[in-house]
Amino acid sequence: MDSQQQIGDLLTHYEAEHLIEKLQIVNIEEYGSQIWFKQDEILQRLNMQAHVNAMVKSDEFIMDSLVTFDKVKILIYDLIETEIWKQKVLPLLKNHMLKINTYRSYIAVYHEAVVCNLLEVIMFHRTAVDSADEFLIELIDYCYRKLVHLTKFPQTKKVTKKTVEDVLKKTRIEEYQEQIDDIEFKICMMCVSIIRFISDYVKHLPVSVVHHLLEVNDILCILVPLIEDKPWLRQTSEGEREKYENSKWQIVEKSEYSKIVKLEANVWITIYNLFMDPECRKKYELNEFRKSNLLRLRKYMNEILLDQIPNLSHMLRTLEELSIMNVQSVPKSNPFIVQQIPEIRENIIKGKNWNDIAEKQKNEYFVNDKETAKQDMQRLADLYGQNIIDGLMEGFKCELCKKEATKRCSQCKTVWYCTRECQVAHWKDHKIACKKIVEENKEKEQRKKEMISDLGKENVPVDNLLNNNTEKQILVTEIEQKPQFKQNDAQLEQQQQQQQNQNLDELD
């Protein structure tokens, strides 16, 4: 892969704002429609850009724009709606899904992972958590359901490499169900991170949200079994240990057996945030069951773990003190607390005829004709033809030594390096290309500025100025929305009306 083109097609700040403004609630009856697929494409683009921003630690304008335009709530609503669709409608359509093209049937179930993944990235920031507002309880409930599902997930602790015969023996329905299960597992793992990020700001959360987190859902109770089961670890039939990290299974080197997996660290930090916070301790009603549940953690808190997460030593000491305490089940609920009730899920489900919805989507949206297949292939080419995907999935490679890279050229921002030494050594070869890319980017930005400055003054030849279809669409929309341009349109209509009246007078 030519790394100089790795991020050439990603969204600019301007394009991202335009796409985010277009995000809207799509009713569950329209799931799979053209409007729904268009929004799914937008979300996938935003998700990829948000991950790139996080990877290179640059300006996270995707998160900022989602907060500015109050679209975090739209994401949470979409997430819950997709979950309901998979539970209520997908079972009625599963056999039909096998008859349509693979892309459409896969995206229908993968959409939930896209939205959840985008939320996972932005919830790292407190501004995004605050922006969720009353929808935060809905997100906590959603994550709780996924964590419960994770504890019940069929644990394949020992996996066998599949042969060609194994793949050929599988039926289409078995393959599709395997895809659904794999996506569900990924979503559950994302929810582990989301809950951890929310717990990081527990001191700043409303009282009703903390109450919902600790008492209504009892997140602490569900996290302990995850520490015991460790669903992020498994072993192959060849004896190799694998860990689930960065959304894929990776072989763990023997030298890293003692190193804690990121997901497990997130669980420990979440427990620490909720259990060690003084205000949370006051609100968490300890009884014998909860006490025994928390004390199960002690046997996993060894020196190896404490060396990697030193703060847990304080929690271990607190657990030891708890073990010798007599727990009295005294209600700590405040009679004056206003408890928020999650309503989104109930409102979506209320009054729906799932058979009618499934029949409509089967006949109108999930169809198997050549035109639909052609549109899907075009959408796939437009979306996943971006070279950045390889970098996101496999990690960026150093342009010189091909090792994993975490730094990039500060000027053109397209070439990646593992160390400064490699960058200096490669500069002679990269210098000319770097200068050319920088000049092209400057020209592109200058064209946009000229275009914007001319809005409303004259008819700008958009097709001559811009080669990118997305840029054309965005700037043409801006022209139509510009007040000066609307005023010119009004003047033109007035002149036409006057001319028409004059012609009528002449006829009289």
Automatic annotation (TrEMBL):
InterPro entries: ZMYND10, Znf_MYND. It holds the Pfam family zf-MYND. It comes from the Eukaryota. GO terms for molecular function: zinc ion binding. GO terms for cellular component: cytoplasm. Residues 486-508 are annotated as: Disordered. Residues 398-434 form the MYND-type domain. The keyword Aminoacyl-tRNA synthetase does not apply. Transmembrane segments: none annotated. Residues 487-508 have a biased composition (Low complexity). The keyword Cell membrane does not apply. Keywords: Metal-binding, Zinc, Zinc-finger. This is Zinc finger MYND domain protein.
